[in-house]
Every structure is written in structure tokens, then in C-alpha cells.
Write a structure and sequence with these properties.
Layout: H1 33-37, E1 39-44, E2 47-59, E3 70-72, H2 73-85, E4 91-101, H3 103-114, E5 120-128, H4 132-137, E6 141-144, E7 149-152, H5 165-184, H6 190-197, E8 209-212, H7 213-218, E9 224-225, H8 228-239
Parallel strand pairs: 2-3, 2-4, 4-5, 5-6, 6-9
Antiparallel strand pairs: 1-2, 7-8
Helix pairs in contact: 2-3
Length: 240
């Protein structure tokens, strides 16, 4: 007998809406995907969304201490690619509660999200600080909880630096990359964003601005104040 043709979608993630086949009642062992990637697939009626969490510090090229909550970009970027290429995934929901982290790793993740053709919605819960701002605005629609906050500040570094003009020029170029991305993916102007970044009258030990949920919306960084339910509803509307 001829071999049964294989489904070209067999290599993609399982469809959580699919009915169990064969009428078997025994539970199959499944990998703990949530613990591995901080994500989960859920469905409503005929729509399937992938929920991704970005929490703690965004880890870059160097490992952070074991007791730190981290989001590893080498895990997130391939996952985003698989979500974009899986025909059964209808949209992506991004839950953010991050203190920031590595600039280049954060921008890399944000660039992948912003370039996705599938509907994407982000919501800031707790905090979306520092490099968490480009991550929040990278989605096609962004939300922030009323109790959440976002800290806008200049690029910072720790450790040994050389006190030469080239060092400060490098920091300026890195800040320009962040500013350009945020301005292109939100409604804030470059001039206003830099005013928030260089504000000296708010943070006692630093330069910058802390924005609560409503102010983040009024400044044009985030689209709406809302809850997770609001973000999910908006994502389902975008998938129809």
C-alpha cells in the first residue's frame, strides 16, 4: 500500500484545541513547556494565541547569577520565529514585567516582534523599565496596567570604562538606537522622549523619569491602560 502522506504542519507545536484521537483516556506525558520558555498556548473558539512572558532581566551575552530572574534572548528569538511560521498560531500576547537588561539583546527581541506579520499585543504588568520600553512598544497594540510603571533613563553601564571621547560617543549612538526604535513604534516625539530620558528633577540617584500607567499613555508611549482581559480581547479582534 502507498505510504500515507505526511502533514507538512506536523513539525509545528500541537494544537491545544484539537480533540484527542482514538478515544484513549490515559494521559500522555507532555514536556513542561511553560517552565522552559515562559510561554503557553491557549485557544478560544477557533482562534489560537501564544502567550509569552518577558520577566526579570533580559539576559545578554553574559550569564547573570543563578538567583536572578532572567529572560534569555537565545530562547525567545527562535520561539518568536516558530510562532511567526506556525500557520495554526493566530496571534501573540506578550506579558511584560521586566527591570530591563542588556540593550542589544532587548533590541534584538523587539525588532523580531515588530517585524512579525501576525497580530501582536503587549501588556506591561508591574513594570516595563529601561529596555522593557522598546519591548512594550514593539507590538502592534500595547497596553499597560493602571498600577504598572515604566522608567525612562539614559543608557547605563557597570564595570570599567575608558574616560575617552569615544566612550561617550558610543553611549550616544546606543541611546540613539533605542530612541529611534521607540519613536518609530509609538506616538511619542523624539524631543519629548529625550526630555523624559534626561529629566534631572525626579530620580534622586539617577537621571530619567518614572511613568505610571496613565501617564505612559498620555505621553504617547503606550496605546491604552487596561487589564490582561482587555489585551486578550484586543488580540482576538485583530485575528478576525
Amino acid at each position: 500500500m502507498p505510504e500515507k502522506p505526511t502533514d507538512e504542519r506536523d513539525d509545528f507545536v500541537p494544537n491545544p484545541c484539537a480533540e484527542p484521537q482514538g478515544g484513549e483516556n490515559k494521559e500522555e506525558e507532555k514536556p513542561d513547556d511553560f517552565n522552559e520558555s515562559g510561554s503557553v498556548i491557549t485557544c478560544h473558539k477557533d482562534k489560537i494565541i501564544h502567550c509569552l512572558t518577558i520577566i526579570g532581566q533580559v539576559e545578554g551575552h553574559y550569564l547573570l547569577p543563578r538567583d536572578s530572574k532572567t529572560t534569555k534572548y537565545e530562547h525567545i528569538i527562535p520561539l518568536l520565529v516558530s510562532i511567526e511560521e506556525d500557520p495554526r498560531i493566530d496571534g501573540l500576547l506578550i506579558l511584560l514585567n521586566t527591570v530591563g537588561g542588556d540593550v542589544e539583546a532587548g533590541l534584538a527581541i523587539a525588532e523580531v516582534i515588530s517585524g512579525m506579520k501576525k497580530p501582536t499585543v503587549s501588556i506591561v504588568l508591574g513594570g516595563g523599565h529601561s529596555i522593557g520600553i522598546p519591548l512594550a512598544v514593539s507590538a502592534k497594540k500595547s497596553f499597560i496596567a493602571k498600577s504598572a510603571s515604566m522608567t525612562v533613563h539614559p543608557v547605563r553601564t557597570t564595570g570599567l570604562t575608558l574616560g575617552v571621547p569615544q566612550t561617550f560617543e558610543y553611549f550616544q549612538r546606543m541611546q540613539d538606537r533605542i530612541t529611534t526604535f521607540v519613536v518609530e513604534h509609538s506616538d511619542v516625539t523624539r524631543e519629548r522622549y529625550m526630555q523624559l530620558v534626561l529629566n534631572t528633577g525626579e530620580l534622586v540617584m539617577d537621571v530619567g523619569t518614572i511613568l505610571d500607567g496613565e501617564r505612559a499613555v498620555s505621553e504617547g508611549l503606550i496605546d491604552r491602560v487596561g487589564t490582561v482581559s482587555d489585551a486578550i480581547e484586543a488580540l482576538y479582534e485583530m485575528t478576525t
